[in-house]
Structures are given as C-alpha cells and as structure tokens.
C-alpha cells in the first residue's frame, strides 16, 4: 500500500475543513478547551470520555456554542463498545486525548497506565484505521525524551526517544503505534509533543504545578517544592494548545510536532509568578524528591509547528499564570454558590 505519511513525515499543508471531529478525553482539561475551540470554529464535534478524570461541567463553554447532551458519549477507549462511536458516527478527524495523564499516578500504577495509554490508544487507532478516518491527532508528553542535558535544549523532534518513567514509556508506545498505523494502514497523523500545559479547569490532585500552587496559596496552605526548585519545564498555556490542535484539524498529518514555548522555567520561578499573581506571600517548604530519576531540565523547540501549521504560542507565562490564578479564585468562590452541573444543564437548555 502507498503511504500518505511516512514516519515523522510531512504532508503538504492544506485548508481542509473537517466535517466531524471526535475528541476522546474531551471532558478532560485539554480536551474541553479543544472541544470549545472546535465548536466556535463551526465544526461538528462529539466527545468520547469515561469521566474517570473528566467532568461534564468542563463542557459548559462548548454547550454555549451548541454542544448538546447527545454529542457526549460515555465510553471506555479500552473496550470495543467504547470505540463503537468511531464506526457509527464516522468522524473524519479523531483528536485522541483520552489517557491516564498523571506522571505520579503512572509510577504508582504502571499496569493501569499501560492499559489506558497503550492498549486504549491501539484500540482507538484500530477503529480509526477501519473506519476511514482522514486524520488522527494525539498528544504525548516531552517525557518521551527522558533526561536531556541543559545545553542540548530546546529539544527538536528528531531527538531520540528515550523515556525514563512509566508515563513517558506509555506515551512513547502510543506514538510508535501511531507511526506503525501510518505505515501499515495509511493513517495520516499529527502527534503533538506538548510542554507542561497549564491554565483554567485542571483536574485532580496531580493537576499540574501552576494550579496546585494557585489552589494552595488561595486556600491558605503551604506549597511544597521538591528538590531545590531549580528543575525546569517548558510551560505552555492551554488555549495555545487548543489552537494548535484546532489548526492541525484543518491540515493533513504533519507527523511528530512539538507544541511548547521553547523556554525553560524553573519551579522556583513558577512559584514567584503564582505568588505575585495571587497576592499571597507565603514561603514554600522544600522537601527531597519522593522518587528517583526525575528529569532535571526540559524545553521543546516548536519551530516545526510554526513552519508547517503556522502555529506559535501567543500567551506569555506571566499573563497565563494570572488567568490561571483568576480561574482558581473564581472556582473557589463559585463552589460555594453554584452547582456546575446545574450550570451545564442551564447552558444546554438555552
Ligand atoms: N496536561 C499536560 O500538561 C499534558 C502534557 C503533555 C501531554 N499531555 C497529554 O494530553 C492528553 C490530555 O491530557 P489532559 O491534561 O487533558 O488530561 P486529563 O486527565 O484532564 O484528560 C484525560 C481525559 O481522558 C479521560 N479518560 C481517561 N481514561 C479513559 C478511558 N479509559 N476511556 C475514555 N476516556 C478516558 C478522562 O476522563 C479525562 O477526561 C493526555 O494524553 C496527556 O497525557 C498532557
């Protein structure tokens, strides 16, 4: 079979308007922003989620743009019934974001992590290949590159994949399977390697350092920083990621592409920025890392995304942190006066 996309290969950019986009994990943190963005762009969108981490109230924005209850499918990507919607609805683009997305949880339960991120991903890709899906877009983490020396940053897409954590390994396996489906089944794909995504609506106890710090400071709790806080990550605001995915839906597959700021920001810098944005001036407590082998520094080079998708990050770190802190404050206030489920029902019925 002739292949439209080689591993890491590139189709020429086009302006394809997708008719139907299915977003797996669409009720999660990144997924809900993607769904809202796609709805605003006038696409037909369906969400597939098992609500293990996602929340129906995350879809309120999308509901205001016309997403209805019948567009939200409850199902598990690891089962044949879960991915049945791909066969039945025949989307032309599948944005695959359903995942076990927590690095610490993957350390605690790597079998579950592999089950969702490897087996679940293969199950989704198989359904896509059988249903004639035009394009698959998925998200993986910079953890696939493992430890990289500071002088070799930012990392380009051609860097060897060398994960050192269960989460990095399962993400890398999903990426490799996507490559294989590209070769063997002609599935066109864009595999986005994301920096550390932050912004409004994160979930759970491992929801990302910016939100954890904001919630702790606003809630009057002391922030714990592991190690010396000089470790760095590449932070990217969630609306920038949603935009990258929405833009990619309108192109053919571009293979692997970094979506990140290209800048290293240390945990200490994150803390200073969140402290300033929240107006709460508590000292953090420093503790030794509870696990060995933590990646020390990371930044991703996103020039390929600019070249092939015309995408570049728009939201600076300080502005993004301010918006995240504002959202954290609003959530804390709103939790006392308004049920979010009621808000979704109200949004859908108007
Ligand atoms: N948030 C980040 O900083 C970041 C960075 C790099 C990559 N990623 C990747 O981006 C994707 C989305 O991440 P996120 O931060 O939105 O995570 P999230 O946990 O908020 O969203 C994942 C969604 O998948 C759903 N899900 C989990 N298991 C499922 C299953 N078996 N069947 C159906 N649905 C299931 C959850 O309910 C949730 O709504 C993931 O692949 C994640 O690994 C995230």
UniProtKB/TrEMBL annotation:
Q: Where is the NAD-dependent epimerase/dehydratase domain?
A: 21-259
InterPro entries referenced in this protein's UniProt entry, alphabetically? Epimerase_deHydtase, NAD(P)-bd_dom_sf
Into which family does the record put it? Belongs to the NAD(P)-dependent epimerase/dehydratase family.
This chain belongs to the protein called UDP-glucose 4-epimerase
This chain's source organism reads: Micromonospora taraxaci
């Amino acid at each position: 079979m002739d292949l439209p996309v080689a591993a890491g290969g590139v189709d020429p950019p086009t302006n394809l308007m997708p008719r139907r986009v299915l977003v797996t994990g669409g009720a999660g943190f990144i997924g809900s922003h993607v769904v809202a963005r796609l709805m605003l762009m006038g696409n037909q969108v369906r969400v597939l989620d098992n609500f293990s981490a996602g929340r129906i109230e995350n879809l309120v924005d999308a509901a205001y743009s016309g997403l209805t209850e019948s567009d939200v499918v409850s199902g598990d990507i690891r089962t044949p019934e879960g991915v049945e919607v791909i066969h039945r609805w025949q989307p032309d683009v599948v944005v695959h974001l359903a995942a076990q997305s927590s690095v610490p949880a993957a350390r605690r339960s790597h079998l579950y992590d592999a089950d969702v991120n490897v087996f679940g991903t293969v199950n989704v890709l198989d359904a896509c290949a059988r249903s004639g899906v035009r394009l698959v877009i998925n998200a993986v983490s910079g953890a696939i590159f493992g430890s990289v020396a500071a002088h070799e940053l930012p990392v380009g897409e051609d860097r060897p994949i060398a994960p050192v954590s269960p989460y990095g390994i399962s993400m890398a396996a999903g990426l490799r399977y996507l490559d294989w489906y590209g070769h063997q089944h002609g599935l066109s794909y864009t595999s986005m390697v994301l920096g550390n995504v932050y912004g409004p609506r994160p979930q759970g106890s491992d929801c990302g350092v910016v939100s954890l710090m904001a919630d702790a400071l606003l809630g009057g709790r002391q922030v714990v920083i592991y190690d010396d806080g000089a470790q760095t990550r590449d932070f990217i605001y969630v609306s920038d990621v949603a935009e990258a995915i929405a833009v990619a839906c309108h192109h053919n597959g571009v293979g692997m592409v970094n979506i990140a700021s290209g800048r290293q920001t240390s945990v200490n810098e994150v803390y200073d920025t969140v402290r300033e944005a929240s107006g709460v001036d508590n000292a953090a407590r420093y503790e030794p890392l509870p696990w060995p082998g933590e990646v020390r520094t990371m930044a991703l080079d996103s020039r390929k995304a600019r070249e092939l998708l015309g995408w570049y990050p728009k939201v600076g770190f300080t502005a993004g942190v301010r918006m995240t802190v504002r959202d954290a404050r609003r959530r804390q206030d709103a939790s006392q006066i308004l049920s979010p489920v009621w808000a979704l029902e109200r949004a859908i019925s108007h």
